[in-house]
Design brief:
single chain; alpha/beta; Undecaprenyl pyrophosphate synthetase; 6-stranded parallel β-sheet; binds farnesyl diphosphate; EC 2.5.1.-; UPP_synth-like_sf; magnesium; Isoprenyl transferase; transferase
């Protein structure tokens, strides 16, 4: 009798990833997901490997996450790949991190093209080595006409730097009288950001148990849902992502109002 009841229960609960994915796709998924990919170093340390081995494994997670986000119907995936603060790391680690876009794109670009993914970048390309710039530029050109998910790499990105640059742009426009003070609105400020053509993230994910924003999209994340997971980035997989999206779909996004709106 109990056996029968148990069996009945298990059939009602979606068990496989595919079943859960199908249910998630029936409800609105976040349009823009931003991820702080953290924990590569700790993943490597646990295995007595050099930190760069963690970053290399993290690159494979970038591929897996991109394909899965695309399958989920997410329209923009922004990944924090290198921050303006990451220049303080040892040279060997920086050099390795700078080579990853090249390796990632030379290995996976055909797959991205096949999946209609468009590669973009936010951040300042000024300090990037030429081979890094060229790899990203080549991928952006090769995918420029794709109209599927945008894979947006934040490389040498810092939110405060971005805000300062936006303020400079607007200050110049004010001094040249191309805009008036009354025209300075949330929209014009958003329009001066590197993400001007993108919707704000609906969901921010940070892996590895750290609970902070680390100078990432501070303006754009004003109303984002925040999800922090203990999973280290190289271990992050389809199940981790799905669990976070399932949780997101249960939340009520009110954007400051009192209405308990369904997730948008
Ligand atoms: C933070 O983990 C991670 C980074 C600084 C680099 C993230 C880069 C990748 C995941 C690969 C990017 C791939 C492409 C294709 C651009 P950490 O090193 O600070 O980890 P820890 O806190 O455990 O030391």
């Amino acid at each position: 009798m109990f056996d029968k009841l148990l069996r009945k229960k298990t059939t009602a609960v979606p068990s496989t990833l595919q079943e859960r994915l199908a249910i998630v796709k029936e409800k609105p998924v976040p349009t823009h997901v931003a991820i702080i990919m953290d924990g590569n170093g700790r993943w490597a340390k646990q295995r007595k490997l050099p930190r760069i081995a963690g970053h290399h494994e993290g690159m494979k997670t970038v591929r897996k996450t991109t394909l899965f986000a695309n399958e989920l119907g997410i329209q923009v995936l922004t990944l924090y790949a290198f921050s303006t603060e990451n220049w303080k790391r040892p040279k060997l680690e920086i050099d390795f991190l700078m080579k990853l876009p090249g390796e990632f794109l030379s290995t996976y670009l055909p797959e991205l093209v096949e999946n209609n993914v468009k590669v973009e970048m936010i951040g300042s390309s000024d300090l990037l080595p030429s081979h890094t710039k060229e790899a990203i530029q080549k991928a952006m050109e090769a995918t420029a006409h794709n109209d599927g998910m945008i894979l947006n790499f934040a490389m040498n990105y810092g939110s405060r730097f971005e805000v300062v640059e936006a303020v400079k742009t607007l200050a110049l426009q004010l001094s040249e009288n191309t805009i008036q003070l009354e025209e300075l609105t949330e929209e014009t400020v958003s329009g001066a950001m590197m993400t001007s053509h993108l919707p704000d993230p609906d969901l921010l994910i940070r892996t590895s148990g750290e609970v902070r924003l680390s100078n990432f999209m501070l303006w754009q994340l004003a109303y984002a849902e925040l999800a922090f997971t203990e999973v280290l980035w190289p271990d992050f997989n389809e199940e981790s992502m799905l669990s976070i999206i399932e949780d997101y779909q249960k939340r009520s996004r009110r954007f400051g109002s009192l209405e308990g709106d369904e997730i948008k």
